[in-house]
Amino acid sequence: MIEFRDVTKRFDDGTTAVDGLDLVVEAGTITVFVGPSGCGKTTSLRMVNRMIDPTSGTVLVDGRDVLGVDPPKLRRGIGYVIQQAGLFPHRTVLDNVATVPLLSGWDKRKARARAAELLELVGLPAEFGKRYPVQLSGGQQQRVGVARALAADPPVLLMDEPFSAVDPVVREGLQDELLRLQAELDKTIVFVTHDIDEAVRIGEKVAVFREGGVLAQYAPPAELLTHPADDFVANFVGKDRGYRGLSFVESDGVEVAPPPTSGWQVVVDEANRPRGWRAPDGVEVSGGSLYRLGDPVRGALDAALSSPSGLGVVVDADGALAGVVTAHQVVEAIERGRRG
Ligand SMILES: Nc1ncnc2c1ncn2[C@@H]1O[C@H](COP(=O)(O)OP(=O)(O)OP(=O)(O)O)[C@@H](O)[C@H]1O
C-alpha cells in the first residue's frame, strides 16, 4: 500500500507542484494519476521512490515513511518505467533487462536467465534479447522497459506516461498486455497519464489532478464518468462520458432475439461463427462489430449501430452466433438499469 498524507511539494522557485495530497493506493491495484499538463502527477509519483522529497507531509510505502529508507534500498522494491522506455542504447536488450539483478549482486548467468524469462513474459521473442534498443519498434522498446522494471520482482511499479510515445493501436495492445500481466503478477501499480481514455481503461481507481497540484477526484472509473465531482472533472473526462460510461454497465438486462429467418440474414461459417450479412437482394456484405454475451452494454450498442441490417450480432464465449439485438433494446435495458 502507498499512502500520501497531506503531502505538499513546493520547488525552490515557489512553484507549488503538489498541494496537500491525501490519497491511498491499495496494494495489488492499478491506480492512475491523470490530469492536464503541469498538475503535479509526475512530482507525486517521484515522491514515492524519493527522486523528489516532499516539502511537508508524509509518503508511506507499506506503512513506512519513505524518508526513513535509504533511496537505493527503497528503489530496489519499486520498479520505474518511463516514456520511451529509457533503455541503455549501448547494451543489448537482454543486458538492459538484467541491469537491476546484476546491480543487486546476481551472477551474470542467473541475471540473464531471469531477463530471458521476463522477455517472454512481456511477449517478446527470445532472439530479441541479442538486439540493441534502436533495432526495436517503439512498442517493443516499451515492453523491454516494463520487463526491466519487473526484473527485481518489485512489489510496487511506478509508470510515468509509459505508452504515450507509441501510436494508438500499439498503445491499446500495450494496455491489454499490462492488464494481462497484472492479473498474473498482482503488483501495486501507479500509472501516470494525461489521457483520460487510457486512465479509465486500465485504472481500478483514478485520481484526477487539477492545476496547482490539487486532487480533484479519486474514484473508480465508472463513478468518475457517471458522477464527476465538479465541472472541472466533468470537462476533463469529456463530452462523450455518458457513452463511454457504458463500458462499465453490466449487460444482464439486454434481451437477445433469435437471428432473423427472412429479410436480412446472418451468414455463418461451418462452426456457426458470424461472417457477415446477406441482404434481402441476396448480396453478401461484411458485418458490424460483434457483441460477446456478458460484455458491457457499450459493445451491444456498438454492434447494433455498426450493423448494416440494424441488428447487432451477438456471439457466445466461443464466438458462435447466439442471436441479435437492436439499438432500441439496448437503450431500453440501459434505462431499466438506471431506474434500478
Ligand atoms: N524542478 C522543478 N523546479 C520548479 N518547478 C518544477 C520542477 N519540476 C516540476 N515543476 C513544476 O511543477 C508543476 C508540476 O509538474 P509535474 O511534472 O509534476 O506535472 P505533470 O502533471 O506530471 O505534467 P506533465 O503531464 O506535463 O508531465 C509544473 O508547474 C512544473 O513546471
From TrEMBL:
<keyword id="KW-0547">Nucleotide-binding</keyword>
<dbReference type="GO" id="GO:0016887">
    <property type="term" value="F:ATP hydrolysis activity"/>
</dbReference>
<comment type="similarity">
    <text>Belongs to the ABC transporter superfamily.</text>
</comment>
<dbReference type="InterPro" id="IPR017871">
    <property type="entry name" value="ABC_transporter-like_CS"/>
</dbReference>
<dbReference type="Pfam" id="PF00005">
    <property type="entry name" value="ABC_tran"/>
</dbReference>
<dbReference type="InterPro" id="IPR003439">
    <property type="entry name" value="ABC_transporter-like_ATP-bd"/>
</dbReference>
<feature type="domain" description="ABC transporter">
    <location>
        <begin position="2"/>
        <end position="236"/>
    </location>
</feature>
<dbReference type="InterPro" id="IPR027417">
    <property type="entry name" value="P-loop_NTPase"/>
</dbReference>
<keyword id="KW-0067">ATP-binding</keyword>
<dbReference type="GO" id="GO:0015418">
    <property type="term" value="F:ABC-type quaternary ammonium compound transporting activity"/>
</dbReference>
<dbReference type="InterPro" id="IPR003593">
    <property type="entry name" value="AAA+_ATPase"/>
</dbReference>
<dbReference type="GO" id="GO:0005524">
    <property type="term" value="F:ATP binding"/>
</dbReference>
<protein>
    <recommendedName>
        <fullName>ABC-type quaternary amine transporter</fullName>
        <ecNumber>7.6.2.9</ecNumber>
    </recommendedName>
</protein>
<keyword id="KW-0813">Transport</keyword>
